[in-house]
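User: I'm writing a tutorial on reading structure tokens. Could you give me a worked example: one chain, its sequence, then its tokens, then a sentence or two explaining what the tokens reveal?
Assistant: Sure. Here is the example chain.
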Amino acid sequence: MGDSKKVIIDVKNLSSGYGDLSVLENVSFEVYESEIFLIAGPSGCGKTTLLKNMIGLLPPFKGDIFIHGKSIVTSDWDEKRKLMRNFGVLYQTGALFGSLSLMENVALPIEEFTDYSPKEIIEIVNNKLKLVNLDGFQNFLPSELSGGMRKRAGLARAMALDPKILFFDEPSSGLDPITAANLDTLILDIRKNLGTTMVIVSHELDSIFNISDRVIILDHEAKGIISEGKPYDLREHNRDPRVAEFLDRKGMSRKLK
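And here are its predicted structure tokens:
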């Protein structure tokens, strides 16, 4: 990745928090087309706050965020809705509606944002579920699925409108190592086959080293980015003890082939 790549997301001088609490100060970075970009760091460093800013759920105190060159901060509601159609979000819990089947869950954004016929919607949903290896589970309720299957179903819904960008909030949270590795492989396959740009919030070392092209590491005390680059480069060459402490944690348990 580099400056020759097309910039898809541009975060400029962003400061954010809640009420009087400042969590992030003067944060700037770019995400390139088809990149898997990880936002990492220990708990409480502002990862999820930054994600909420990027997807338009939390207005920053100051600064701006451009998606495909358009501000998601200053846009009016109609413009923001158009921008939001460019991305999908996989929340930490999957955020599926428990009373709806997988078919109905994945169909929701298609029904809301498009004019496709019921027959066309069924075809689209079936294709998305096949993409995440859930073909045959269309009529299952979320409660009837494992945690990993619910994550994949949430991913199918996030992909329902063929977004150019996918955001993930701790996708491996609560999953066993094998299931988490399978989800990482699925993320890599989606990028390979569709060229989707992905922004992933994670503190999991396995995911950081196995799937990310670049990573930014946030720090609670610094209220911002303390390091940015390729994960192996940061581990081998960064002299910041906070970065070394985070990336040299013991217990890396898996390696994707």
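What the tokens reveal: The mean pLDDT is 90. The chain has nine helices and ten strands.
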